Amino acid sequence: MRSFQSWLALAAALFISAVPAQSQVLYGDANLDGTVNVGDATTALQISVNLIQASPAQVCAADVSPVAANGIFGDKTVNVSDAISILQKIVGNTTVDPWPGARSICELEPGPIGGVPLPTIINPLAVHADTNREIKLSGGFKLQGTITGAGQNDSLFFVDEAQQITASTKIENGSYITGVPAGNYTAYFSRMATSSGGIIPSTSVVTVPTGITVSVTADTTRDLATPAMPPLFTVSGTVTAPGDQEPPIFFSIQQVRDANGQPLNQVSGSSSSVFSMDGTYSVQLPAGVYRANFNATGEENDWFASVPALETITVTGNTTQNLSAPPLVNLSGTVTVTGGGTLPPGTSQVILSDTTTTGSFTGKYASTQVKGGQYALQAATGNYGLSFSHSLGTTGQEGSWSYRIGELNLQADTVHPIQVPPFPSARVKLAGKVVGPDGAPITKGSISISSISLDGVSQMQTASPQDLQAFCEGGACPDRSKLVAPLTFFLFAALAADGSFNLSVPPGEYHVTVFPDPGFPVTNKFQ
């Protein structure tokens, strides 16, 4: 959960300018506020004369001219003719009817659209006043089959050619089923191994490619066989901590290089959850290079820290490797609201996130709850990004405020007061309904929104290169993703039984993600 929350906070802060899927584009909506009006014609004109640097989503929405004989429209640029076409649409004098025509050229051959509802992202969605929006999910196809030789705890992953999309599915009774967009996918197989002995057995998860690629252009059945798994070796040793620190009871081991010393991609490799109740540990792992991440907690779990071991573990056979936890230092202080304001009801956390470690290895992290305006925790020395998070107690919805305070170089026991801005009290309604590719309501699912910018709040500051490297690893990030909002708002809610949602949010622009529940796992994106 710790890793998920830290990625989620970063994803909420970064503005990724992605071109929406066809079902999400409102053609003519050049300013992306959910309607087509005179403001969009003005925005298109400003884009055409370079007064506005348009995002890919804006170009896709504003590029409505020319219209070819086959109904496909646009020329991948925004110029005066696009502004005129939008204006003609507004006054009901457009030659493009029905609007927007057959298909925009900006869709770049997205491939067939199937009937399986897939997670869908709208970025950005402007919510400056009460807004009603129907969200139509993009469609994909069923990918299913049998897999021989699989055990109860085995699973499959399907990864696209760009290493951007993964579909994971559990194997039940020798069968699997998931949903994916059209494309070519490589299958990976994952198996869990349990180490014998100890009060709490340690577990390892080994994921390897099957060597099988599946092309999906329609509902597809593909039967598989379990691939040959690499041999497992016993990795064992003792765990120590300096001074009067308690040796960590729980830690994780993450593979960072394969048996040939090459870095791993985002799917392959092995990881292990290790319990060391008596200062010793033993786990089963394939050959490779590993790092351990220790977990430490304060009394009554009032703080949590994760810190890398001082040693790497190189496994070429049965291996004895003793591990040492680095020393921790104290960080404490007061938390106040600028101008003497108070926080809304809920719980607050102070969070330290490593700004130097990149890649799949988690790195240093620490967090603690704020109690009575005070915080105190322990962490390893080093450079951190310091942030504040306030969880909102809302019935039927989970929400939080996050505030990026800055950087902290922690080298010794430190008292560091924290001041956070008053969170905006203004609220508007974001309501609507989620429908599938066929237009039918999605009866099970969830919607999450994270702010890109908030009205009346200092919007953007430059993200650290380390944040960008960690978030964008494996693919180039658009230039606009180099902006991070210091103050962000996040809200998560389940869809109602009729597919509707009704959220109360501060005015601003949002990154919106809808996850349907079609009854089996569907795709996720790495980034």
Report on this model:
9% of the residues lie in helices and 46% in strands. It has a 17-stranded antiparallel beta sheet, covered by helices on one side. Strands 3, 6, 9, 12 and 13 form a 5-stranded mixed beta sheet that branches. Strands 14, 17, 20 and 21 form a 4-stranded mixed beta sheet that branches. It is globular, with a radius of gyration of 25 Å.
Key phrases:
527 residues, mainly beta, 17-stranded antiparallel sheet, 5-stranded mixed sheet, 37 strands, 9% helix, globular, disordered N terminus
Question: What's a quick, concise take on this entry?
Answer:
It contains 5 helices and 37 strands. It has 527 residues and is mainly β.
C-alpha Rg, in Å? Answer: 25 Å
Q: What class, by secondary structure content?
A: mainly beta
User: How many angstroms separate the termini?
Assistant: 17 Å
Shape: globular
| Average of the residue pLDDT scores | 81
Which helices and strands, and how do they pair?
Blueprint: H1 2-13, H2 38-48, H3 56-62, E1 72-73, H4 80-90, E2 103-104, E3 116-117, E4 120-127, E5 131-136, E6 139-148, E7 155-160, E8 165-170, E9 175-180, E10 183-194, E11 203-216, E12 220-221, E13 224-225, E14 233-240, E15 250-257, E16 269-275, E17 280-285, E18 288-297, E19 303-315, E20 319-320, E21 323-324, E22 328-337, E23 346-354, E24 365-369, E25 374-380, E26 382-394, E27 397-410, E28 414-415, E29 418-420, E30 428-435, E31 445-454, E32 461-462, H5 465-472, E33 483-484, E34 487-494, E35 500-505, E36 508-516, E37 524-525
Parallel strand pairs: 1-2, 5-30, 6-12, 6-13, 14-20, 14-21, 22-28, 22-29
Antiparallel strand pairs: 3-6, 4-36, 6-9, 7-8, 7-10, 8-37, 10-11, 11-16, 14-17, 15-16, 15-18, 18-19, 19-24, 22-25, 23-24, 23-26, 26-27, 27-34, 30-35, 31-34, 31-36, 32-33
Helix pairs in contact: 2-4
